[in-house]
Amino acid sequence: MSAPRSLYVEGAPILSRDEAQALAKRVLSFATADATRVTIRSAARANSRFAVNQISTAGDNFDTVVTVLSTYGKRSATATTNKLDDAALRQVVANSEKLARLSPEDPEAMPELGPQEYAESAGWSDATALLDPVARAGAIRTITEPARGAGLVSTGYIESRGTALAIANNKGLFAYSRTTEAVLTTTVRTPDGQGSGWGGAAHWDWSKIDARALGATAIQKARASQNAVAIEPGRYTVILEPTAVGNLVQLLLGAMNARNADEGRSFFTKQGGGNKIGMKVMDERVTLVSDPLDPDIGTNTFAADGLPLKRTVWIENGVVKNLAYDRYWAQKQGKEANTGGGGGGFGGFGGGGAGLKMMGGDQSLEELIAGTERGILVTRFWYIRPVDPRTVLYTGLTRDGTFLVEKGKITKAVKNFRFNESPVFMLNNLEAMSRAIRVSASESGNTGQAIVVPAIRTREFAFTSLSDAV
After folding, report:
1. Stretch 440-461: mean pLDDT, rounded?
2. Four-residue CA torsion sign, 262, 265, 266, 270
3. How confident is the model at residue 464 (pLDDT cuts 50, 70, 90)?
């Protein structure tokens, strides 16, 4: 009897720099448009899910996608394929060019960039790119076995990916980057569904994610969150664990758009006109930075249009230092572009997602709790939705472990709350912070923006109603 067929293809079959450049040259050789940009995304993705203390699914996917952006004057369009033979590449170029001729003119269209210089991303790990089903299963067992032994029910998700991204155009530009990303999240509940705990982490380096510790945290919170009591909604001092901070602070990425501010549609609009660059808007201890070369972030070093992404300080000591300018708005306002103009099948804030880091303090989470006379400890938020872009106001719910703190100690579990709050107000009322760590800030538990934040204690956080959800 033959051995069972492996479900995992050895190695991470993503394109090397030379392979990506050769593929881009082939595509460009078929182009006749005034300008052509080729975006190549070659990715190896893997995931495992578990439920009721056992693995339920596992899968691996490998794909290379080519997106062609064709431009005639100010008319442009894209077409995409994952077939790499010459006939398919000729066809995708022809489709893109046909659509471009039919497209309306874009008065804000910018010319393609010429050759640029790029730093090499720090965010690649072989351990992450080659994380196979056996390794994922081993990590899952460190959660499911203790949960089963404690009479609890665990569920969760692991995802890893290795991605090669390349951009080339007919003006001589070529950019290439390799990055990895991994995330593990788990929810543990009591059999009666009355107690729920969560643990999660994300990093480009799988070795930085401690599955056993995350499972232990979720188990502890599931036990502690039983018999939750209702307390009155209102404004409370809160201790937000890093994931909860990340859930809200990441919302500032979309809010720090220079054009929205200049046109009067944003919190960052200055009264009387213009924007708030140079103005103090948060507590003086708040500094927010995007830096693709930060070892905690490790993202791509270029945006969708090939613009190099560099370290950008958005908020420094509470003062607005920069807003996000794409090339069109930067030219119009006489500024330097610091974010991509989109297009080409890329997407994300900054066109390349340079992540966001909030500099932390020197206290531990335990010290933040110990220094609280009366407050609420929040594990994380979910179902977060916008309310008012001019104040960056959002609403959402607490989840998976919400506790009352009295005289520096956790005294009881409390029922979940709905909040109406702005991360700007939250960071204005800051009292203390822990050191910053990388978190899994996505509500869905999949890989998302690289977010590095501390736990914080902040006052006057607005809880508006109770929720019966666990």
Report:
1. 89
2. positive
3. very high
Is the CB of residue 321 less than 8 Å from the CB of residue 334?
no
- Domains in the chain, start-ordered, CATH in brackets? 17-148+159-181 (3.30.2290.10), 228-469 (no CATH)
* Tokens at 350, concatenated: 């900054």
Residue 327 token pair: 């090339």
Please report which helix (H) or strand (E) contains residue 417, including its range: strand 416-421
Residue 35: phi and psi, rounded to 5, are: -140, 140
pLDDT per residue as tens digits for the range 337-381: 998 764 443 333 333 368 999 999 999 999 999 999 999 999 999
Residue 446: DSSP 8-state: S
Element (H, E) at 218: helix 211-224
User: Does residue 421 surpass a pLDDT of 50?
Assistant: yes
Token code pair at residue 13: 């079959």
| pLDDT over 50 (residue 15) | yes
In angstroms, rounded to a whole number, what is the distance separating the alpha carbons of residues 273 and 296? 37
Task: Look at residue 176 and tell me whether its pLDDT is greater than 70.
Answer: yes
| CA distances for 244 relative to 270, 380, 398, 404, angstroms | 29, 4, 9, 16
What pLDDT score does 8 carry? 42
Cα distances (Å, whole numbers) of residue 44 to 62, 109, 136, 388: 5, 33, 15, 38
Cβ 417 vs Cβ 463: under 8 Å = yes
The pLDDT of residue 3 is above 80: no
Tens of pLDDT, residue by residue over 189-213, are 999 999 999 999 999 999 999 999 9
Beta-sheet pairing, 312-316 with 319-320: antiparallel
Q: Report residue 360 as tokens.
A: 């932390």
Radius of gyration in angstroms for the set of CA atoms belonging to the chain, rounded to a whole number? 24
Number of neighbours of residue 334 by Cβ within 10 angstroms: 6
Q: Is 139 left (phi over 0), alpha (psi -120 to 50) or beta?
A: alpha
How many beta carbons lie within 10 A of that of residue 217, not counting itself?
Answer: 21
Closest CA to 157 of 183, 132, 131, 133: 183
Distance CA 301, CA 176 (A): 9
